[in-house]
Structures are given as structure tokens and as C-alpha cells.
Specification:
- The protein is of the alpha/beta class.
- It folds into 2 domains: 179 residues, 3-Layer(aba) Sandwich (Rossmann fold); 174 residues, Rossmann fold.
- It has 13 helices and 15 strands.
- The protein has an 8-stranded mixed sheet, sandwiched between helices. A 7-stranded mixed sheet has the order 9-8-7-10-11-13-12, sandwiched between helices.
- Helix 5 crosses helix 6.
- 52% of the residues are buried.
């Protein structure tokens, strides 16, 4: 199979979809890999390393995008829509439920799009979302600590306080992978931490692990308001797999929050769990509403691209190889990839996306079977 690795073009997106080690594995399986020149530079991976692994270095984005399987990190931007085509399998993060233009571009092109964030194994685990959720969760606390500084518009509160002075009050909305990792760093910094979730088992897990070092609360309107109004830092860590995040903090709540408090909405990729969330970039990461600092960068892990690239690739490697070796047959054979399939030949194949945009949802197995029968080769 012909496999393409284009360079990421989102603002300060320094991750790369494949490392040289994955390229070597693919080429040894008989596949040809086209790597756009300087695709790995942001993660300190050189063209020479990819060339040594067996890749062909190509000068232009369209060369890499012309492949049968295109592997990326972030969703295509509007300037890349023209590269989408029917005979392509696109394997990347997509977050379509919060991106109507991209959804329609994929449907119009007929491209087969498999989203990292919806690949799901037995027991509901999301193996390709987990590594970036771990990075984003840990970063969220670090970033929040930075923007709490008065020089960055915050309340001027030190996360761990000092003897005789109370530490920062941190509210974490969601006890999943992001929330758990945010709590790990926040507790380590000495902050007063409260985690809210509707899943009692997750709250019990955190309570057992931390043994009084943090508080857990059931996530309902009353508790959210009480905790958020007393917080210096709020971390949005809500996840609805493949769907749009619910608004847990409304615009009407902001005037009741502490002036100079900080919101880090990690759920921004899925529309955000704060009504006033809008995507920002690493070049212009924050804005202020009602005295509350909002940090809503949609590709947070790209700030630590080397860690993020290797963490992501460690999980995507086997799926990439499976798609390269088997093509669409991989979706038939691998239940996790069936969940990952978001669009195929003009149809939506993931229920949450179809529901968000009022579209018909086609069963992923049926969609792929139809194509394979029509084109058995």
C-alpha cells in the first residue's frame, strides 16, 4: 500500500503522525511510505532518519496526501480539504461532532475517515485517545498554574501556597483520563483539589488512591456551582466519546466565579464543557470574559511534541500496520477499528456524529461490506 505522512499545519502543531520506527516496520512489510519534507522537524525527527527507515521524502503536501492511507495527528484544515479523495483512508484525530465543515468535506469527498478518538476496545477503552489525554491532563494543571500568575492575568495565587497561606483551590470536571492526570499533578503541587463526575466507580477509585488528599463530589448542577464558584482553577475534563461535550459551566455562571480565576477547557476539541469556550491557538492561547481567564488551545499536547509524538505512536503503530496490510478488510476484522470508522463513501458511520448533525447513520460493517463486494480486489 502507498502510505502518506504529511506535515501538520495547524498553529504550532509540532507532532507527527508516524515516527521513523513505524516507517521502518511498514517498509519491511512491503509498503511504500511518502513523507513530506520536514514533517518530523517539530518533534526533532529529521528527513535523514525517515530516509534511513526506508521512506521516500517528497517536497509537497499533495504528494503525501495522494496516498491510499494517510496518517496524521490533527484533523485536516480547510486548506487541506482539497486533498481528500474517495480512495483514501484517513487515520487521525477528527473530533467531527464539533466540526460541521470538516464532516461535510469528508462526506463530499467520499473519503474513509478513521478517528483516533473513537477507536474503542472491549470494555469501552479508547487506546488512541488515552496517551494524549494523559499529556493534556498533566499539562492542564501546569498551564493553569502559569495563568494564575498575575503577570498572565490570573489571581496571583501559588498552586501549593506557602506555610501559613492557603494553596490554590482546583476544580476538575470529569474523572476520566484527563481528570485523573490533572489531579495527579495538582495534588503533587499541594493544591486543594476537588474532582466531580457522575461515575461513582471513578470517584471511588480516586478516593481510594489519594486517601484524603483530594475531595470527590457527584457532578450535578448544585455541586458544580458550589465548587466552581470557590475555585481558583477549573479544568474541563469531560468526555463524550465521539460526541459533543455538554456545557457544565454556563455563561451566566461566570460573573459568580472569582475574578482572575482560570478555566483550562481540555474538552475544547469536542466543543468545550464551558459555554464561553472557543478554540484558541498556542500563538494566542487565552481570552478573558467576566474577569475569568479562558485557556482553550485545541492541540495542547503539541507544546511538548516529542513526548506526545512518541506516546501517540506507541499506541497507533499496530493499527496503522493493520490498515496498511489489510486495507478496508482491517475494519471488518478489527472491532476497535469499526468503532473508529466515522465516514465512508459519503456516509456517516458513527452514531454520535450523525445525531449531532441530523444525518443518517450507516452501520460501519455494512458500509465497508458494500464497498468490498463492489470492489473485491
Amino acid at each position: 500500500m502507498l502510505i502518506g505522512l504529511p506535515k501538520e499545519i495547524k498553529d504550532h502543531e509540532n507532532r507527527v503522525g508516524m515516527t521513523p520506527s513505524i516507517v521502518r516496520t511498514l517498509t519491511r512489510h512491503g509498503h511504500q511510505v511518502l513523507v513530506q519534507s520536514e514533517a518530523g522537524e517539530g518533534s526533532f525527527l529529521s528527513d535523514a532518519e525517515y530516509r534511513s527507515a526506508g521512506a521516500l521524502i517528497v517536497p509537497h503536501a499533495e504528494d503525501a496526501w495522494a496516498a491510499q492511507l494517510v496518517v496524521k495527528v490533527k484533523e485536516p484544515t480547510a486548506t487541506e480539504y482539497r486533498y481528500l479523495h474517495q480512495d483514501m483512508i484517513l487515520f487521525t484525530y477528527l473530533h467531527l461532532a464539533s466540526d460541521k465543515p470538516l464532516t461535510h468535506a469528508l462526506l463530499e469527498s467520499g473519503a474513509t475517515a478513521i478517528a483516533y478518538e473513537t477507536v474503542q476496545t472491549e470494555g469501552g477503552k479508547l487506546p488512541l485517545l488515552t496517551p494524549m489525554s494523559e499529556v493534556a491532563g498533566r499539562m492542564a494543571t501546569q498551564i493553569g498554574a502559569t495563568y494564575l500568575q498575575k503577570t498572565h492575568g490570573g489571581r496571583g495565587v501559588l498552586m501549593g501556597g506557602v506555610p501559613g497561606v492557603a494553596p490554590a483551590n482546583v476544580a476538575i470536571l470529569g474523572a476520566g483520563i484527563v481528570g485523573t492526570n490533572a489531579a495527579l499533578v495538582a495534588v503533587g503541587c499541594g493544591a486543594q483539589v476537588t474532582v466531580l463526575d457522575v461515575n461513582h466507580d471513578r470517584l471511588k477509585y480516586l478516593d481510594d488512591i489519594y486517601r484524603g488528599q483530594l475531595q470527590t463530589r457527584f457532578s450535578d448542577e448544585y455541586n458544580i456551582e458550589e465548587v466552581v464558584y470557590n475555585a481558583d482553577l477549573v479544568i474541563g475534563a469531560v468526555l463524550i466519546p465521539g460526541g459533543r461535550a455538554p456545557w457544565l459551566i454556563t455563561s451566566g455562571m461566570l460573573p459568580n466565579m472569582r475574578k482572575g480565576s482560570v478555566i483550562v477547557d481540555v474538552a475544547v476539541d469536542q466543543g468545550g464543557c464551558v459555554e464561553t469556550t472557543r478554540p484558541t491557538t498556542h500563538s494566542n492561547p487565552t481570552y478573558e470574559i467576566d474577569g475569568v481567564v479562558h485557556y482553550c488551545v485545541a492541540n495542547m499536547p503539541s507544546a511538548v511534541p516529542r513526548t506526545s509524538t512518541f506516546a501517540l505512536n506507541a499506541q497507533t503503530a499496530l493499527y496503522t500496520l493493520c490498515l496498511a496490510d489489510e486495507g478496508l478488510n482491517a475494519v471488518q476484522k478489527n472491532p476497535a477499528l469499526q468503532y473508529g470508522l466515522n465516514t465512508h463513501r459519503g456516509s456517516v458511520t458513527y452514531p454520535a456524529i450523525a445525531k449531532e448533525f441530523g444525518l443518517e447513520c450507516v452501520d460501519p460493517l455494512l458500509a465497508v461490506e458494500h464497498t468490498l463486494k463492489a470492489c473485491p480486489s
